[in-house]
């Protein structure tokens, strides 16, 4: 179980959110919604252990998740806005980079996102949606309990959204949890919405 317990985050002089509580159980999906700047990406980064907390804690199965940051990083996949691809490497080589850390079946992962026919193409030649699919292929490599996804469906065509839905179903059926920020509906059955109302101009800390 992943939990944000009374979390407050400051950016510069501004409070992005405070008193935030969120609990996500195995197999569960939470969709973060809210206006631009409400703090959805910030919350994903908090859960990933990438943003310092002014107050509160991030817990994994009741224990401080960030006490051992390497262990926390190893139990999650964080998909940011940017696709974090290496443009000079081929599609398959990009996945090999991650597979060296996590293991996994590269051809199967490429198949899962419909990129098998483009395996040898340099990543820089992919379209925007294909780049997003390559980023998503990382999720298909090896099982991992926590998926933190920032607008995962941006740029995807209908077939790719269906494939994303299949990946999400498989992950949750195996007990994985998902927290996803989005402005559009995602292929996530029975997801719980957590709305961040934000503080439009920020408030002084
Ligand atoms: N590195 C940073 N330094 C200072 N302020 C930041 C930083 N990153 C984000 N912010 C501020 O934090 C607030 C929340 O940003 P965040 O990216 O989490 O919003 P969001 O809900 O994901 O927005 P969007 O829907 O536009 O993606 C914004 O006001 C933003 O300006």
From TrEMBL:
GO molecular function, one term: ATP binding
InterPro entries xrefs: AAA+_ATPase (IPR003593), ABC_transporter-like_ATP-bd (IPR003439), ABC_transporter-like_CS (IPR017871), ABC_transptr_haem_export_CcmA (IPR005895), P-loop_NTPase (IPR027417)
Pfam families on file: ABC_tran
GO biological process, alphabetically ordered: cytochrome complex assembly
Coiled-coil regions listed in the entry: none
UniProt KW Nucleotide-binding keyword: yes
Organism domain of life: Bacteria
Domain ABC transporter: 2-205
Keywords per UniProt: ATP-binding, Cytochrome c-type biogenesis, Membrane, Nucleotide-binding, Translocase, Transport
UniProt entry tagged with the keyword GTP-binding: no
Protein's UniProt name: Heme ABC exporter ATP-binding protein CcmA
Protein's gene: ccmA
